[in-house]
Amino acid sequence: MHITQLNRECLLHLFSFLDKDSRKNLARTCPQLQDVFEDPALWPLLHFRSLTELKKDNFLLSPALRSLSICWHSSRVQVCSIEDWLKSALQRNICSRHESLVNDFLLQVCDRCPNLASVTLSGCGHVTDDCLARLLRCCPRLRALHLENCARVTNRTLTAVAAHGRALQTLHVDFCRNVSAAGLRRLRAACPRLTLRAEHSAAMIPDQLPRGPHAPGAALRKLLLC
């Protein structure tokens, strides 16, 4: 029996065992398999291990998406986490190549995936409060939001959770240095049923406005961050 003689249900089951690249390669072999590749039922879960994967065309965003994770574990994450005003020209150049990728991708998710239930973002140093607030508004069924080492996430995201995260049951904001203890207390008071975890976030040194190159501790802080 040829693979194209299998029924739709069997083909979807077969595709489900393949990674994104393998699915795309198989879909290129004939129009029938391309049609299976484009079936939203094949894409309830998406996991990305690097930001470059977000630019590929080997996946589908649709209302069928329920779980999304972007986990970037790279040495460049450390560069992204440095405060903008402390970055060298080289570090700014490195960040410029990818700083809008996650935000742009999440905006597409907002437009196409209203039934999203779970989102995990790790090492996404450029994801913004505004982007996460829009995600909460556009995905009213979101039940779990896990944020780890997202340097630009602040108390504004916590405020957006209180305002728009009506279905949210679990929120993790681990190693997010610009989330404060006061912000966490306000969120706990506003959403007492929310399971909230914030490992080390409130204990980390938050971003500070530049005070000039000769400010006390400025040189040491830049050295430690680099």
Automatic annotation (TrEMBL):
Main location as per UniProt: cytoplasm
Keywords assigned: Cytoplasm, Leucine-rich repeat, Repeat, Ubl conjugation pathway
Record flagged with keyword NAD: no
Presence of keyword Cytoplasm: yes
Compartmental location: Cytoplasm, Myofibril, Sarcomere, Z line
Matches recorded under SMART domains: LRR_CC
A Pfam short name: F-box-like
Role: Substrate-recognition component of the SCF (SKP1-CUL1-F-box protein)-type E3 ubiquitin ligase complex. Promotes ubiquitination of sarcomeric proteins alpha-actinin-2 (ACTN2) and filamin-C (FLNC).
UniProt-recorded name of the protein: F-box and leucine-rich protein 22
Organismal lineage: Eukaryota, Metazoa, Chordata, Craniata, Vertebrata
Gene coding for it: FBXL22
